[in-house]
Amino acid sequence: MGKLFLLLLIVVPAMEIGVLILSGNTLGIPVTILLIILTGVLGAALAKKEGLNAIRTAQLQASQGQVPSGVLLDGICILVGGVVLLTPGFITDALGFFLLIPQTRTVFKGFLQKIFQKAVQSGSFVYVSNNRWNRKP
């Protein structure tokens, strides 16, 4: 997993630079810069909207005594999508919007659930409950 992450840290920025150069040559530098700023602003607004929706849903589920597990995965996707959208580039922007739009986010949530299930089954991820609020003195 570490090698894959290192590879992504090298390959993705190189691809982003190539796409930005191609865009600058095709559309022009001012238009490319404007598109980068526009996607950042739109992404920040969408991340804020989706994040607030996730918080409201989690609060509602918690007030009804439900565990907001699906909403927590939504929150992780929204956080990662928002951060990725703030980095300049069109490839990362596409990934960020993919994580922020609820219909496409479900695909990534399913992927995350499979990763968590495999980690729990293999024993590399252990959940320990430390519920201090329900302990009796």
UniProtKB/TrEMBL annotation:
Tell me which species this is from. Salipaludibacillus aurantiacus
Question: Which Gene Ontology terms of cellular component type are present?
Answer: membrane
Superkingdom in the source lineage: Bacteria
Tell me what this protein is called: UPF0716 protein FxsA
Question: Which keywords annotate this record?
Answer: Membrane, Transmembrane, Transmembrane helix
List where the protein spans the membrane.
26-47, 67-91
